[in-house]
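Build the 3D complex.
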Amino acid sequence: MTKEKRHVISMLVEDQPGVLTRIAGMFARRGFNIDTITVGKTTKAGVSKMVITVIGDDQILEQVEKQVNKLIDTIKVMEMTEDKSIIRELCLIKVAISNKKAKDEILRYTKIYKTKIVDITPKTITAELIGDPDKIDSFIELMKQFGVKEVSRTGVTAVSRG
Amino acid sequence: MNGAHILIETLIKQGIDVTFGFPGGSVIPLFDAYLDYKGKIKNILVRHEQGAAHAAEGYARASGKPAVCIATSGPGACNLVTGIADAYMDSIPIIAFGGQVPTSLIGNDAFQETDMMGITLPITKHNYQVRTPNQMAPMIMKSFKIAVEGRPGPVYIDLPKDTMTGEVTEPIPTEVNIAGFQPTKMPNPIQIKKAAEAIAKSERPLLLIGQGVVISEASKELAELVSLTKIPVSTTFMAKGIFDETHPLSLGTVGMHGRKIANYATLKTDLLITIGCRFSDRITGNLKTYVENAKVIHADIDPAEIGKNVKIDIPIVGDAKEIITQLTAELKKLQTKEKTEWTKTIKHYKKYCDECVPIKEGKRIHPKTVMLELNKLMKPEDIVVTGVGQHQMFAGHFLRMRKPRTFISSGGAGTMGFGLPAAIGAKVAKPDVNVFLIDGDGSFQMTIQELGTIKEAGIKIIIMIMNNSYLGMVRQWLELFSDKRYSEVYLGTTPDFLKVADAYGLKGIRVAKKSELESAIKQAIKNDTTTILDIQIEEESNVLPMLLPGGNLKDAFGGCMAGPGKYFEG
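Done.
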C-alpha cells in the first residue's frame, strides 16, 4: 500500500440535472471521502467541469478514477498532479482585532501572503486569499493566534500546465 | 402520435415483443397504447411488480437479449426495486419503466409520487426521467444502448404521465450517441501477448471463467481454447454451463459451496487465468490468502473490476470473445504444450471427487439425490432456474449443465423469491425447452402469487419445491456457527403445496420417497400445464463442503472432505 495523500481529480461531465448527485452518491457508496468539490461551466455548452480532491493511497485513487469513469454522465477523467497542474483555492477569512498591535500584525501578515483585504471594521478584518490549499492552510493557522471568526473556502480547482 | 405510442414503437424497433408489467393510474396511457399494437407486442400481466422485474431478468438471462418490465408510479415502481438491484448485481440488461405523476406535480408530494430517480440511482447502470414527449424515443434508445453494451446492467426510466399523453412533435432520431459511454471492446495486443507467454511458461495453469464469457456468447471460443491448451476450467456460479460440465477438464464451480476439485485447483495453480469474473467475496474468501502464490491474469470489460479486490499481474480490458479468440491465436503461435503432469493430477482428483460423494439416505429424501436424478432426466438445452438458499447451492454444486444460459440464478444479490418469476421469464424467452424451477419452500413463498400469472398466461414449467419446512441456509449457519440456537428459521408444514397448485388450477404431486422421484419428474415433464412437485427433503441436511465467509480457501471443510484443510491428501 502506498502512502495516503491528497489527489486532485478533474472531470468533464454532462451538464444535466442530478449529475452532482450521481458523482457524490458514488463516492459515498464506495466509501471514498470527498475533501473538496467545485463545479463550473466550460466553454462547451452542456459540459461542466468538476474538480474533486480525495485523500487516499494509489489504489483508492485508481478505483475513484475508474468508478467515476464508469458513470454515464462522465465524459473525461484525469488526475491533476502538482508538478503538471496549477491548483488553486480561494479562501475568505475573517479575523478579530483585539487591539492596535494585533491589527498591525495581521495587516503585515496579509501583505506577506499577498492577500486582499476585502472588508474592515473596528473589530474585524476580512481577507481574501488565493493559492494552493497548503498555503491557505498555513495562513489560517497563522491567523488563529488573533482569533479566527469565520472561514469560507471554495474548494480546489485546477488546470493542467502547458 | 403521443408519447405512449412512440414508447411502444421504440420498444418494437429495439426488438421487444413481450414485456412484463402491472398497471396503475400513472401508466394507464401506456397500457392503452398496447391495444393498438396487437400482434406486435404483448404484455404479460404479473401479480406483483417484483415478479415483473424478475421475469424480465429471467427473460434476459435465458435469451441474452434485453428485457422490459413496467410498473406504475409510487408503490408500483418501488416494488421493482428488488429486481432492479438484483439485475445490477448480476449485470443483467433490463429496462425498467416506472410511471410518475405529471411533470407539473413532481416535487409536490402528489398521490403515488415517489422519487424513483433517487431510489434507483445506486442500483442502476443509469436512469432517465423523460421530461417532454420529444425526449421519449431518444431516452429509450440510449437506455437500450447503455443496458446492453460493455458490462450490461439495468436502466430505469421514469415516465411522468403527461409525457405519455402529450404529442411528440420532433422527428425520431435513427441513432443516438452518448459522449461518456464508449466501452473498450478490443483488448490491447501487448497484454494478450504477455498473457500468452505467461500461459506458455506456467506449470499449473487454471482457467476461472465468469459470466462475462456468457454475456459475450463465447462458449465456442472457450471450448477451442481449452481443446488447444488442455487447461482445466473452473467457473463461477454465475457462469455455470459456459463450459460443458461433463467434460473431463471441467472442474465445476469455485467458491463458498463450490466443488472441492475446483477450489483445490485454485490452491495449487501457479497461474490463474480469469476471464469475465469480478472476484466476489463468495469466490475468494480471505483476499490476503487467495491465490497468494499464483500469478493472476484478469480479463474483463469493466476496467473498474481489475485490481478492485485481487492484485493482478496481467490486466486485459476488453470483450471476452475477442480476448479468448486472440489469446488462442497467440498460443497457437507459441505452440504451447499440455502440462501433462498437472492435467493428470487434476483428472485423477476430479474422478475421485466425483465418486467420493456419499449419500446417507434417511427417512426423507436427500437434496443431492434430487439433483442426481435431475441430471439424468434433463436434456442439455433444458433450463434450470433456482430460488435462493440451500437448494440453490445444492443445484450449483451437483447439477451438470452443458450449455450457457441454462442455469439461471440470483448470484450477487441472493434474492429469495427470484425463482418463480424468473422461470416465467425464461420460459417466455425459450418456449421450446423444459424449464425446471428448483426452489425452497421459503424462497417459493416469497413470490408464490405468480402462480396466477403462470395459469392465466398458459406457461408450463416444472416446479420442484425442496421442502424441508426450514429456512435451510440460515438454519445451517445457526447449526454450524451458533451452537444450534435456532431463531426464526422454522416455517412449519403449511401451506399444503398440492392444494395451492389446485387453487391455481395447476397440477401437484407429492414426492415423499426416493423411489417416487423419477416417475414424478417424468410425469411433470409430460403434463401439459405447470406441475408443482412437493419434494419432502431431509429437514436438516447441510450444503457441504463449505468455505467460511472471509475464510481461507484451504480451510474449507465438511461433506466429503477428509478434514478442514484436507482436500485430498492425508
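Chain B has three domains: 3-165, 189-355, 367-536.
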